[in-house]
Amino acid sequence: MPATEQNLIIRKLESIFRLSDEERAALQALPMQVQAIRADQDIVREGDRPTRCFALLEGFTATYKMTGDGKRQIHSWHVPGDIPDLQSLHLRVLDFSISTLTPCRVGFIQHEPLRELCRKQPRIMEAFWRQTLVDAAIFREWITNVGRRDAYNRMAHILCEWVLRLRAVGLVEDHTCDLPMTQTELADATGISTVHVNRVLQELRGNGLIVLRGNRLKVLDWDQLRQVGDFDPTYLHFGEDREVA
């Protein structure tokens, strides 16, 4: 695995958990099969019984579920450095699907080497466990967002989260970052129609909070966007408890 890919995964873990030099070296030695995947492709599907996890190395993905009548609900976005299906290490059958939002490079990691790593490096297992708890916190926040905030507020909220998660892996510059989701994907994440998504984005732009040019987002007024989104980043747990035990 090239050093850039190693550093990306390590950087993501270290946004929530401090690793030692030995633990970084153990992660760098983890065998990985790197593969390029086109946009709008499922990487894993609900009902799969996987024998491997994947690390997202480049691009963006989304976790989702489908209703019986074919409607999609997106539960979370994933950014480079994430291991979105880490649960499969302990859950034999997946109850969710993960699809690419953009062209992606992913690194597949077989379960057995990952289990062996966790046995030899128990603090890395703690880091992975902490990451799954953060993922659960994000799911809870998204449920609250869709269930109790209006469309304008919920869109502001997920934009705030997106900016902070990209900043944690070095993908924000001058309050500007990629926003690769289509309006359909934003609708599936917020539980509103694509027409309503367009209106809400226009309103956020008209109120001077954001600028959207193609797939690039620039936040003009971070404090106001946070206020509109009722956004408290505590649930992302960045920087907590990161000292070596």
Can you describe what's shown?
- Helices cover 42% and strands 20% of the residues.
- By secondary structure, it is α+β, with helices and mostly antiparallel strands.
- The chain folds into two domains: 3-132, Jelly Rolls; 143-236, Arc Repressor Mutant, subunit A, CATH 1.10.10.
- The strands form three sheets. Strands 2-6-4-5 form a four-stranded antiparallel sheet.
- The longest helix is centred in the middle third of the chain and has 27 residues, at 122-148.
- The model is unreliable at 241-245 (pLDDT under 50).
Widest sheet: strand order?
Answer: 2-6-4-5
Q: How is the biggest beta sheet arranged? A: 4 strands, antiparallel
Radius of gyration (Å) = 18 Å
The percentage of residues in β strands lies in 15-25%
- For the record, the CATH architecture of the largest domain stands as Sandwich
Structural class computed from helices and strand pairing: alpha+beta
Kindly report the CATH topology of the largest domain.
Jelly Rolls
The first-to-last residue Cα distance is 27 Å
Fold blueprint:
Layout: H1 3-14, H2 21-28, E1 33-37, E2 42-44, E3 52-58, E4 61-66, E5 72-78, E6 97-100, E7 104-110, H3 111-120, H4 122-148, H5 151-168, E8 176-178, H6 183-190, H7 194-206, E9 210-213, E10 216-219, H8 222-229
Antiparallel strand pairs: 1-7, 2-6, 3-7, 4-5, 4-6, 8-10, 9-10
Gist of the model:
By secondary structure, the chain is of the alpha+beta class. Helix content is 42%, strand content 20%.
